[in-house]
Write a structure and sequence with these properties.
By secondary structure, the protein is an alpha/beta fold. Among the domains are: 80-143 and 242-265, no CATH class; 266-364. It is built from four helices and ten strands. The strands form four sheets. A three-stranded parallel beta sheet has the order 1-2-7. It has a three-stranded antiparallel beta sheet with strand order 9-8-10, with helices on one face. The longest helix is centred in the N-terminal third of the chain and has 25 residues, at 13-37.
Length: 364
């Protein structure tokens, strides 16, 4: 067999080749069968959570239950604080509860008991106007300056510095008593002796009128010092606040006294009271110098921002038949005197860097 040149068969390698061939054929047949039968499968069952599958595990650990609670009911927002005018003639008194602030502390009151009680504890106002809504004012007056009292005088002691001059009385000067003798020829043959004044004599050479108990013969001016006790400064006479437009309100408050409104003092309230007065006086001054008539019964509402540096910026203007001149007058009254007084650090901490305000101007 060696001479013929043929290779002998490997009995071990032949079965391995057959196994590989059989595996390849089986793999091809499996894929063909999968492609044929795939449309009949429902793939929806292979998605989501398989509740039918149970896994046996001896050590499951702790279990946690989660429950979604409904959203909480939003809390009712508090009403924003409102600036109101106060009555300078009413006594200061801390109110029990209020959302109002101003330039002084004051509690609501009125002179007569009302038949109805206002829910906001505001005093009643009559003989005003029903067409205008103004909840910040309760009294009306003028813009006259208050009459200040005399300045306080401290106590002073006597010193070498003269403060006042006075006239000393002149001393009485009377000569010695004597007689006046007339001699000579007389047609009637009568002679007389006339006595001088009967006042007590001071042995003076001539007669000078004066006070008997005075000691200064010439009565010249002398300097004397004046000492006085300390006196407090006189209380100023208050005047009514600036002119305002009031709204009729029949309901009132239980408290009786000088008309006042519930308010608490704050730096911002004092700042706004000053701002309102400046704007109103500027508005009146511009109207006095203006020659263009503005329709009566019209009004302008201006919304503007004011920052911590006292600078203003107009946001919105609502014109009610006032015309261009009426709107320009109101805008100038707000911006003519800026920048206003800067805010304090306490105001900045509470209010931020700016606030939005709304002013209403009524032409009557």
């Amino acid at each position: 067999m060696a001479g013929t040149g043929e290779q002998p068969l490997d009995s071990i390698k032949d079965p391995a080749d057959r196994s590989i061939l059989i595996g390849a054929v089986a793999t091809v047949l499996f894929h063909v069968l999968l492609m044929v039968l795939s449309p009949r499968f429902s793939f929806d069952e292979f998605s989501g959570v398989h509740t039918g599958i149970a896994v046996n595990n001896t050590n499951r650990g702790k279990t946690f239950d989660f429950e979604l609670t409904p959203s909480a009911v939003p809390e009712e927002q508090k009403k924003p604080l409102q600036f109101v005018d106060t009555n300078p003639d009413a006594p200061e008194n801390e109110p029990d509860k209020t959302n109002n602030f101003s330039n002084r502390t004051q509690q609501s009151a009125q002179k007569e008991a009302p038949k109805e009680i206002d829910p906001l504890n505001r005093p009643s106002i009559t003989d005003a106007q029903d067409t205008i809504k103004n909840d910040m004012s309760i009294v009306s007056g003028d813009l006259s300056q208050p009459q200040l009292g005399a300045a306080a005088r401290p106590e002073s002691a006597q010193s070498d510095q003269p403060e006042q001059n006075e006239q000393r009385l002149r001393m009485l000067q009377a000569p010695d008593a004597g007689y006046e003798k007339n001699q000579g020829e007389s047609k009637e043959g009568v002679s007389s002796n006339i006595s001088q004044s009967k006042l007590p004599s001071t042995h003076a050479d001539q007669n000078v009128e004066g006070a008997p108990d005075a000691k200064n013969p010439d009565g010249s001016m002398v300097a004397v010092t004046e000492a006085h006790k300390a006196q407090p400064k006189a209380r100023p006479r208050l005047t009514a606040p600036r002119t305002t437009i009031l709204t009729n309100r029949t309901a009132g408050t239980r408290n009786l006294g000088i008309v006042g409104m519930d308010a608490r003092w704050s730096e911002y309230g004092e700042y706004l009271a000053e701002l309102v007065e400046i704007v109103q006086m500027s508005w009146y001054a511009i109207l006095d110098e203006s020659r263009s008539p503005i329709p009566s019964g019209s009004h302008v509402v201006i919304t503007f921002k004011i920052n911590a540096n006292g600078e203003t910026d107009i946001v919105k203007v609502e014109d009610s038949d006032a015309g261009k001149q009426g709107v320009f007058t109101c805008q100038s009254a707000i911006q003519a005197r800026q920048p206003y007084r800067k805010w304090t650090q306490q105001m900045i901490d509470v209010l931020g860097s700016e606030q939005e305000l709304t002013f209403a101007f009524y032409y009557r």
